[in-house]
Amino acid sequence: MSTEQVIKNQQHSNMWRMSVAPMMDWTDKHCRYLHRQLSRHALLYTEMVTTGALLHGDVARHLRFEVEEHPVALQLGGSEPADLAHSARLGEQWGYDEINLNCGCPSERVQRGAFGACLMNEAALVADCVKAMVDTVSVPVTVKHRIGIDRNESYEFMRDFVGTVADAGCQVFIVHARNAWLKGLSPKENREIPPLRYEVVAQLKKEFPHLTIAINGGIKMDATVQQQLEVVDGVMIGREAYHNPWWLASWDALYYGDDSRQRTRESVEEQMVLYMEREARAHGTHWYAIARHMLGLRNGLPGARRWRQVWSDHRLKHLAPAEVMKLARTKPQQASELLSFA
Ligand SMILES: Cc1cc2nc3c(=O)[nH]c(=O)nc-3n(C[C@H](O)[C@H](O)[C@H](O)COP(=O)(O)O)c2cc1C
């Protein structure tokens, strides 16, 4: 590899240092907007969008996002090289910074479509898919996968998968450090029951030092992030980022050496209210569809429960978001007086 390529890879690998995982029904554009208020640098992933949805569905509905969300990666689900190339091109045209292929989702619906985690059994097909996308777009094409399928815990199986796909032009792998058991477990159980084996990901990085390797799965604390950043290039956080979004507010200073933006939970809430007003005006989005993602913002603080209850109270749906914020910040007794006028 040339020096130029090595430098390019090093700059690249910083892009994956911290990221928020793709999560269906959770990491929609509203959720990403919230996360971007908290961290300027973390890479944000979309929910998985299938090639079928982009070929036959409403492209704008699936791909529209705010310019403030950058850097943002589009995750695709599919297994047809031509369809993936078409979808990747759309993603690039809509401005996404990366195209990611899902080779880690174990749900039955996804298996019936023959994509997601079962693609790990088809390394040559994944290589074709990656090549078709790499030949079509100039943004990075990356793969998110598991460390194995079913009870097969062979390191060589994953190594050969990564080797084959890397040869087709993929330089970045995000590895969910547990197997996917394709039979008998729900997707939720598949995120909890197969054991985490971080050491396998470390071994992968050792064997492919020139590739960018990010680790994912069960990471909830800075201490673990710091340990992992000694070993691999990046850490992807899923559920903890969603349930405890305030964690992201410390990432810029801790992981990117950037402490230029001071935020408080209140200032983030105020930004979200402005966003709710803009979204309502421009797209008719109800604030309720946005507020559902920020319910964990005050976790751990006194009064968090009541704040969360106000922002998720469907009886307040007729109020403007600024009014809801006022109620959420009001002491319970005053709030009931305010509510009786609402
Ligand atoms: C609600 C939910 C939806 C998910 N949807 C996707 C998805 O669309 N694509 C994907 O690759 N992984 C998906 N995942 C898996 C996460 O990206 C991540 O790999 C997993 O949650 C493990 O990371 P964590 O322990 O930090 O949560 C989903 C996880 C959750 C909780």
UniProtKB/TrEMBL annotation:
It comes from Comamonas terrae. Residues 20-316 form the DUS-like FMN-binding domain. It is an enzyme of class 1 (oxidoreductase). GO terms for molecular function: tRNA-dihydrouridine20 synthase activity. It catalyses: 5,6-dihydrouridine(20) in tRNA + NAD(+) = uridine(20) in tRNA + NADH + H(+); 5,6-dihydrouridine(20a) in tRNA + NADP(+) = uridine(20a) in tRNA + NADPH + H(+); 5,6-dihydrouridine(20) in tRNA + NADP(+) = uridine(20) in tRNA + NADPH + H(+); 5,6-dihydrouridine(20a) in tRNA + NAD(+) = uridine(20a) in tRNA + NADH + H(+). Catalyzes the synthesis of 5,6-dihydrouridine (D), a modified base found in the D-loop of most tRNAs, via the reduction of the C5-C6 double bond in target uridines. Specifically modifies U20 and U20a in tRNAs. PANTHER family: FMN-LINKED OXIDOREDUCTASES SUPERFAMILY PROTEIN. This is tRNA-dihydrouridine(20/20a) synthase. Keywords: Flavoprotein, FMN, NADP, Oxidoreductase, RNA-binding, tRNA processing, tRNA-binding. Belongs to the dus family.
